[in-house]
Amino acid sequence: MSMNPRNAVAVTAGRLAGWASRTLLHRSGGNIPGAVALRLSPQILASFRSLFSDVIVVTGTNGKTTTTNLLADCLAQTGKPVITNRAGNNLEGGITAAVMQGRRSLTSAQRRGGAIGCFECDELYTARVLPKLRPRYLVLLNLFRDQLDRFGEIDHTQDVIAKALASSPETTLVFNADDPLCASIARRVSNPTIAFGLDEPTGTESDKVSDSRFCAVCNAPLDYDYVQYGQLGKYRCPKCGWERPELAVAVRNIVLGPRGYTFRINAGSQAAGPAGATAFPEPLAVGTAYRGLYMVYNITAAFTGARLLGAPSERFAEVLANYKPARGRMQTFTVGGRPVLANLAKNPVGFDRMLQLIKNSSGHACAFYINDNDADGHDISWLWDADFECLAGMPDLQVFAGGTRANDLQVRLKYAGVPSKIALTVSEALDQCTLSTGEMLYVVGNYTAMPVLCDELEKLDEGDAANMTAEEAIAAADAAAEKDVAAADRVAAAPAAEADAAVKPAAASREPWALLAPGEIAPEFKALAARPLRITHLYPEEMNLYGDTGNVQMLYKRCLWRGIPVEVNSLNRGEQADFSGTDIAMIGGGADRDQLAVQGELLKNADALRAYINDGGVLLAICGGYQLLGRHYYLGDEKIEGAGAVGLETRRAGEGPKARLIGNVSVRSEIVRDPILGFENHGGRTFLDENEKPLGVSQLPGTGNNGEDGFEGLVHDGVVGTYFHGPVLSKNPQLADWLIERALRRRGMDVALAPLNDAEEEGARAAFEKLLK
Ligand code: GLN
């Protein structure tokens, strides 16, 4: 391919910039050549299209890098040169840089359409990349909540991908049909589609949080025959009949054995490649050492893509066996004779997969690193959506928190019942750890945390684990841990008194930050023993964005730690509300779609809710939930009817970069001493009626209820409405205690609450205040 002069200049300038960055600044160079070339020649990626006979692009929230790399390895079996962005630089600049680099190793014959392009692409960048590369296939893996401060709501990501596909009508969408969020894109676009999925229940994993189990057509809640994890599974809408599309590529015979997953990929004639050949004429038997169900999806996606582009499936088993995960993806190291396993996790679903692994493999130490740089997303409230609770009560587990948001992580762990220490580096964690030989340290970090951790680990690595896969390393560590348990058992079995102490159930012991042990009642709250303080969580399944559920956990624990009898119940879809026993209610935020799904339910119970509020009932309403307390929420032509319980109206702002108010925020309020801190992300603009009082005055211009009048939230008797996530109480324990005190007063107890040790919360506040400057 001969290049036009502008592109030639752009390529040279880009390469020079990359060289300068590597040589002079000692940086990896990654995106830079591509970014510089793009600046000089915005269409440069389109001009590279003629290098390729075929292009395949992989997108989705989790598993992009793993799938793309495995796919590229399989495609190499065609004998054609494969150009790919292995390191996960997945914006347009990263893809451009990968092509610029790969192009140099092509012969001139290969430059005339002899190569295959295999690229992972950020979800939002599909809109830029698809029209330029016009791939034959777009593989869509899954859509989970991730970096919502960048993506807005998942609906927006769906819109972008659908638009990207419209701009490249020849592209066939290969999509995970188990994910209703992916299937709904397939339903909307006119591109050809190929559905893949797991065609039987596996019963192995499931999550508390799902990112939408509503029908893409009519918004009714979906019925599931079975759920794999998150919102993935076999679903059907009981109202309109929309269901998981028929699987062109169906995975069956899925068995999790001691050595990982085995399964069979079956494909019908719908899954045909360019030459019309069926993707898998025979079912393909796959055996893998991986133990996460997500890998079954990733492998299926990669193998399907590779088959569709003509790679020989008889070679796939070998490719998979030799597959080396990318840097920081299930990578093993040996440090000080101890095995360390490092893995990236950057959203609740990814984190849950790791937490399950730690829980099930007798890991004796783990260190979590959470950064909030641009590439990670500035909002980390999703930490409250991950199931850290599963680590509670593991008596020997040592837990460390690091990263720019180490303090927030500590708060999260605290309310999950998991004490932790700060360790900003792996060495700091290892120094503070007491691990027997062979016991594993799990290192989990998010996007920008991981490369730094890998740098450190590579320096410290003694190399012994280099030949072990992650699975072998885990098995070895498990065996070491079991030996340890056996030794501990022998000790415990000796003197009876000591043994008793050793088996004392962890749950009954007092947590370090509690004034009393769980179940103990403080004398001043004896009167509540017969009818504990009740926290009612409204529509937890639908209204649960950004860890808002954490508010319930915080209220509950702050009562428990003080010896206040307390219980939690919930009001779910289809239930008649009865607030007669409720002392504090909480409703979280939700995407517009979730709000639409819940409005009917709320209207049915609006009278009961209004009566509760008029009776002085305490209610914390966050963002989407706060909007629903008002009269209406207008979404362009659509309208969501609110409960009409307080005087406010909300309108969604139009399109454009400023349509959503997103960022870290602070408000001065009369009801608590210190500023209320949190994170906002909303398209709706709320205006209070004259007679309503705001929660406070925004400390930052252009934030709060509507970005205009300087107010944030609302206080109306016992109701606190706010746009703040975080979850809001995690950084504002004073507000939590205001709600508890108010609820106690309504129960006839005018007490000042005993102060708790809020060191972790104070740490998180101090770190957050620096971010606001
Ligand atoms: N969907 C609503 C909005 O965009 C609420 C969002 C939320 O709860 N975070 O304004």
List keywords for this structure.
6-stranded mixed β-sheet; 31 strands; binds glutamine; alpha/beta; 9-stranded mixed β-sheet; 21% strand
Brief summary of the model shown:
With 773 residues, the protein is α/β, with parallel strands linked by helices. 34% of the residues lie in helices and 21% in strands. It is globular.
Q: What hetero molecules are bound to the protein chains?
A: glutamine
Structural class: alpha/beta
Share of residues in strands: 15-25%
The total strand number stands at: 31
The number of helices is: 24
The end-to-end span amounts to 51 Å
Task: Give the helix level as a range of percent.
Answer: 25-40%
Mean pLDDT: 88
Query: C-alpha Rg, in Å?
Result: 27 Å
How many strands, which pairing sense, and closed or not: the largest β-sheet? 9 strands, mixed
Instruction: Give me the side-by-side strand order of the main sheet.
Output: 2-3-1-4-5-6-9-10-11
Any idea what the shape is?
Answer: globular
Which blocks of ≥5 consecutive residues have pLDDT under 50?
484-507
Secondary structure layout:
Blueprint: H1 5-23, H2 32-40, H3 44-47, E1 52-59, H4 64-75, E2 82-84, H5 92-104, E3 115-120, H6 126-133, E4 137-140, H7 148-151, H8 154-166, E5 172-176, H9 180-188, E6 193-198, E7 223-229, E8 232-236, E9 249-257, E10 260-267, E11 284-287, H10 293-308, H11 316-322, E12 331-335, E13 338-344, H12 348-360, E14 365-369, E15 398-402, H13 406-415, E16 421-422, H14 426-432, E17 441-445, H15 449-460, H16 470-493, H17 496-503, E18 533-538, H18 550-560, E19 566-571, E20 584-587, H19 592-604, H20 606-614, E21 618-622, H21 623-629, E22 632-635, E23 638-641, E24 648-652, E25 661-669, E26 676-682, E27 684-688, E28 696-698, E29 711-712, E30 714-716, E31 719-722, H22 728-731, H23 733-746, H24 759-772
Parallel strand pairs: 1-3, 1-4, 2-3, 4-5, 5-6, 6-9, 13-17, 14-15, 14-17, 15-16, 18-19, 18-20, 20-21, 21-31, 22-24
Antiparallel strand pairs: 7-8, 9-10, 10-11, 12-13, 22-23, 24-27, 25-26, 25-28, 28-29, 30-31
